[in-house]
Amino acid sequence: MGELRIAMQVHIERSLFGLTSEGSPVPWTDLPMGPTGAAHVVDGTALFISCAQEHVATLTLQVSRMKTVSLGDGYVLVGSWAFQSHLGQLVLDTVNAGGCMDFRLEPGQLYTMHVWRRGGESAEERFYGELRGVTPKTGLEDYLVEFVPAGVGADAAGVRVSAPS
Questions:
Q1: Per DSSP, what are the bridge partners of residue 36?
Q2: pTM of the prediction?
Q3: pLDDT band at 160 (very low <50, low <70, confident <90, very high)
Q4: pLDDT tens digits along 24-68
Q5: 130: CB partners within 8 A, 6+ apart
Q6: Residue 90: which of 62, 57, 53 has the closest Cα?
Q7: Cβ 19 vs Cβ 39: under 8 Å
């Protein structure tokens, strides 16, 4: 599978949203619900805990041949985890909705999932400050989730430096 990238808006409710690979035995609601600003990943399921309550964030998903080193522009690496693709189809999970996305991983492939966030460190302050009373709340956080096939891009010479478009 070559490189693939999609961006979408996700309606975050109660500070939570998840990504699940169809076939994963772990429900996203079984993962730890804290602390804020964290991500928890088990098998083929990921739970993201925002620093703000209900708002709309940009979520970019991409498959890369090698890990991106630095996104710049305020993005901070939250962490990296093993992620099993199971059946390959990803499902976006939110408190009141969810469903399949137009984004597939190679079925049965183990990936390293890298998660970056922009705006998270000040999202709560802006949520209760300048955006108090504003609906819908947008622009608080952006997420980029990068999937790199396990065992690929391990040497520093192959590391890519880029920013989201």
A1: none
A2: 0.81
A3: very low
A4: 999 988 998 877 668 999 999 999 988 777 778 899 999 999 888
A5: none
A6: 62
A7: no
Helix, strand, coil % in the chain, rounded to nearest 5: 10, 50, 45
pLDDT at 130: 65
CA nearest neighbour of 19 among 159, 106, 107, 113: 113
Q: What is the mean pLDDT of residues 67-84?
A: 87
- Maximum Cα–Cα distance across the chain: 49
- 134-150 residue pLDDT tens: 666 566 788 999 999 99
Does residue 16 contact residue 94 with C-beta atoms inside 8 Å? Answer: yes
Q: Which two tokens stand for residue 58?
A: 């940009």
* Ordered alpha helix ranges (H), 25-160: 120-128
Kindly state the tokens that stand for 106: 């190679």
Phi, psi at 70, each rounded to 5°: -145, 130
C-alpha R_g of the chain: 15
Strand arrangement, sheet containing 98-104: 39-42, 45-49, 16-21, 89-93, 98-104
